[in-house]
């Protein structure tokens, strides 16, 4: 009888343990950084169900001095195995900013990487092979390079005083960095370390690179423009946004390089909040559509198929799902408090996902 009881208890423990270790079964997912709440929401991108909310608090079991982090940006690694989050220290207490790495299979925190005090880290990207991550550090005017295998800081690229780097993208071993205070885009060759600076004449917040490799783009908040940079000649063309625009933040192209979604946020420099997302026809370089999304629209990503775009509304805690072909909002999802960055995961033949 005792033996039977023991076997039963072991079986229950085994089943429970296995259940906890199983990955969430889904073909695609969307990760949303809830900046004020200090968490990441994970949604099934097909059913739109909430899979999990990942609390980013670093719990101190012994001392009880928990460390809370504001996640400004989130990025799925191209190999789909990990998801990277920039965590800015939330309290006034002296503890370091962290880059937080999430296991994309278990949707649990895998690693915490301390990057220093008062760094005000903003955005993170990875190279095409998921070997290194790159993080913008506003206060020291640096890009931090992290080995994505052992999670060690490798080096720091200095942009010089007064740059205040914010958004960035990686394409063909080059980083395209938006510099808020320098009003420029820095192009960093991550192999040689060579840096080319391109003056843009406006407050550059985020960059994008068309998948065909022809152009880089930057959102210019103060002048309400999108700048296009020819990657062969570095010639610049600017597209003014409509008169009712309040200031663009994030922008993201479709996989076919035909369209780009631009989040018009507002809310800074005394401007009202905007709930508009603009669509740019990249062939003609004109505004082709205007879509009403969440209030204080901020982050955007496009699915690997190009069928849907996902846009965060920071002021009303929403994630808008847009059908790319029609420009129609087909779903509005509730997120955590103040959703900011957003990234997309999809399943590959390897069993993992990746960022388009």
Quick summary of this structure?
The chain is mainly beta.
Structure, explained:
There is one protein chain. By secondary structure, the chain is mainly beta. The chain has one domain (27-346): Methylamine Dehydrogenase, Chain H, CATH 2.130.10.10. 6% of the residues lie in helices and 52% in strands. It has one helix and 28 strands. The strands form seven sheets. Strands 3-2-1-28 form a four-stranded antiparallel beta sheet, with no helix packed on it. A hairpin with a 5-residue loop joins β16 and β17. The longest helix has 20 residues, at 2-21. The chain is globular, with a radius of gyration of 21 Å. It starts with a helix and ends in a 10-residue tail after the last strand. The model is unreliable at 1-23 and 349-356 (pLDDT under 50).
CATH superfamily: YVTN repeat-like/Quinoprotein amine dehydrogenase
- Rg of Cα set: 21 Å
- Largest sheet, described in full? 4 strands, antiparallel
Average predicted confidence as pLDDT: 90
The dominant shape is globular
Q: Roughly what fraction of the amino acids lie in strands?
A: over 45%
Give the CATH architecture: 7 Propeller
Low-confidence stretches: 1-23, 349-356
Q: What oligomeric arrangement do these chains adopt?
A: single chain
Q: What is the percent of helical residues? A: under 10%
CATH class: Mainly Beta
CATH overall fold name? Methylamine Dehydrogenase, Chain H
User: What is the β-strand count?
Assistant: 28
Distance between the termini: 57 Å
Counting helices, strands and paired strands, the structural category is mainly beta
Question: Can you tell me the number of structural domains?
Answer: 1
Number of helices: 1
Q: Name the helix and strand elements from N-terminus to C-terminus, one letter apiece.
A: HEEEEEEEEEEEEEEEEEEEEEEEEEEEE
